[in-house]
Amino acid sequence: MEPVLQRGLEFIRAVQTVSNPALTLTIRLITAMGGSAIFLTVLPVLYWCVNEKKGLRLCLMLIISVWINMSLKFFLDQPRPFFESYDPSVGLIGERMGGLPSGHAQNALVVFFILASWVKKNWAYVCTAVLCFLIGFSRIYLGVHFPTDVLAGWIIGGVILCGYFLLNARIETFLEKGGFRAGVISSAALSFIMILYLPGRELLMPGGAVLGLGAGYCINKKYIGFSSNAPFDKTGLKNYLALFARLLLGTAGFVLIFFAGIKILPHDSANYKLYGFILAGLGGFWVSAASPYVFVKLKLAGTEQEQNA
User: With contact defined as beta carbons under 8 Å apart, do 61 and 110 qualify?
Assistant: First the structure.
């Protein structure tokens, strides 16, 4: 493995010979498109303003991908190019955890190709492929991943995508037949599986997010009835203002939960992991149930009952 990493390090140095401030800024913007910030922005927007069912589906696939990626990082514990034993000078930005596989490469592939599959146009797949390539390349340029890390991220992301396309319809059919109870139990079971391997606090958070999102979605379907694309008594400009208000309130609540949680929840080492689980669960529940309840009560959104009336 070491000779492979050394060749990868040589490749990074060769790529960085063309670096300049403008190019580095562009590359950093590209790499941000595969990071958590863009996903935390886009996915709630999809749930609140476009289609809550697709939003939930994409959120869960991203969380599963993140969990798999972080589990492998902890288990494999592979170095990054800028580690002291390699070449600290190549690291143009800082990163934590191990390098293999690349989370940006893997998660971007999963999310953007699922989005492209909903567009169902050839240009969407081409643009997605180019974007995923650029995101992967950006990680090499910035010196935070060896080429093999990026390649592994693409391969694992491809396997996750295959699983999604093969099993998604069957799982949704099972959950629809099982109703509220099956949905809540499935969310809890998946969350439990995800927290079995706990080398670090980070791996409790995906489990908490799955439980909060899944249970919240079931509660919404049974008791609230929020539907992001249901008709409601607003047209034209008022409709767009209502959508903007959803984004504003939803985002504000999401941010408030995390900042308040960080301040309120104790940070003692004994319960540090547990509080991360709780915080992620509250964030997921806010996105899938609490904020939709607020939207419906403030008449910023319609319900499934109104849609089917």
Answer: yes
The answer to whether 66 and 103 are in contact (CB under 8 A) is yes
Q: Look at residue 205 in the predicted model and tell me its pLDDT.
A: 84
* Segment 12-42, tens digit of pLDDT: 999 999 888 899 999 999 999 998 878 878 8
Compute the distance between CA of residue 153 and CA of residue 101 in angstroms, rounded to an integer. Answer: 5
User: Which of 90, 69, 77, 111 lies closest to 6, judged by CA?
Assistant: 90
Three-point CA angle 202, 207, 209, nearest 5°: 95
Domain hosting 273: range is: 2-308
Hey, is 2 helix, strand or coil?
Answer: helix
- Measured in degrees and rounded to the nearest 5, phi and psi for residue 303 equal -125, 165
Three-state secondary structure of the chain: CHHHHHHHHHHHHHHHCCCCHHHHHHHHHHHHCCCHHHHHHHHHHHHHHCCHHHHHHHHHHHHHHHHHHHHHHHHHCCCCCCCCCCCHHHCCCCCCCCCCCCHHHHHHHHHHHHHHHHHCCHHHHHHHHHHHHHHHHHHHHCCCCCHHHHHHHHHHHHHHHHHHHHHHHHHHHHHHHHHHHHHHHHHHHHHHHHCCCCCCHHHHHHHHHHHHHHHHHHHHHHHHCEECCCCCCCCCHHHHHHHHHHHHHHHHHHHHHHHHHHHHCCCCHHHHHHHHHHHHHHHHHHHHHHHHHHHHHCCCCEEHHHHHC
Biggest CA-to-CA distance, the chain: 66
Regions of the chain with pLDDT less than 50: none
96 token code pair: 């934590």
> Which two three-digit tokens encode residue 40?
């935390």
Q: State the total domains in the chain.
A: 1
DSSP 8-state class, residue 226:
E
